[in-house]
Amino acid sequence: MERIRTCPECGSKRIVMDPKHAELYCADCGVVLAEALIDLGPEWRAYDQDQAAQRVRTGPPVSYRLHNKGLSTPIPKGLPQTFRLRGRIGLEGSDKTLILALGELDRMASALKLPADVREETAILYREAMQQNLIKGRSVEELVSAMLYITCRQYGIPRTLKEIAMVSKMPLKKIRRAYLFLIKEMGIKLAPASPARFIPRFCSMLGLSSTVRERAIQIIRKSGSMGMAKGWSPTGTAGAAIYLASRLSGESVDESTIAKVAGTTPITIRARYEEMQKRLLLLSY
Length: 285
Description:
Layout: E1 15-18, E2 23-26, E3 32-35, H1 49-55, H2 80-89, H3 93-112, H4 116-131, H5 140-155, H6 161-167, H7 172-185, H8 199-206, H9 210-223, H10 226-229, H11 234-249, H12 255-262, H13 266-284
Antiparallel strand pairs: 1-2, 2-3
Helix pairs in contact: 3-4, 3-5, 4-5, 5-7, 9-11, 11-12, 11-13, 12-13
C-alpha cells in the first residue's frame, strides 16, 4: 500500500498508526484513512538485547542505500585462497561507481539533515538512472546533488539548489545542468515549490516569533498564485512575505538579513514586498 502522508479531508500531515486496532487515522480530524493493516513485525517479543539476539531469525531489512541492498553473503576469512580473491571478484566497475555515489549521497544528506526516507528514495532514483544508462560520461557528484534536489522537491522538503551546492563538491551551474538533464531524460514531473514551505525554517533562522510565521503564511495564501504567475522564485516570495509580516507585527528585520537567509538579494526582497503589499491592499477593498 502506498504510504499516506496527507489527510485528504483536512490536509493535515499528522497521520498516526494505531497498532492495537490496525488503523491509520488523522490526528487532527480523526478520519480513518486505512484499516485492517498487516503487521510486518515479528510474532515474538523480546525484553532485552540478549533475548532479541536469540530469537531473531532474519537479517536487517533491504536498503537501497547499500550497494548490495544488504543481501550479500560474506566469504569466510579462514580460507586463504578465497581471502586473496575477495578483492578481485567481489566488485565490478559499476558496483564501485555505485558505492561512490551512495557514499556521497549519505555525506550530503547528513550535512543537509535530511530524513532516511529521502536518502532511500534518492538511492532508488540513482539506480533507475543507472538502468537507463544515464550515468556514463557524467560526474557522480553532480548527478547525486541533482537527485537529492529532485527528491526534496517530491517530498516537499524546503531545500534550494544553492543549499545543496554548498555541501556538494560541484558548482551550482553543473548541478542545475544535471537537474534539467534528469528531469528531461527520466520524464520526472515536479509541482512548483510552495513559498509557504520555506517560511517556518527561514523564521527560525531569523529568530522571529510564531506570530510572524503564521502571518507570513497567511500572506502567501492570500496572495494566491501571484508569485507563480509572475515567475517569482519561492524563496524570494517567502522572504518578502516574512518581511511584510515582520513589519505588520512590529518585529522589523532589514531586507539584507532576510535576503541572506533566503539566498537572494535585498533588491529582490524589496521589489516582491512592494508588489505583495499592493496586492493585499487591493484584496482588502
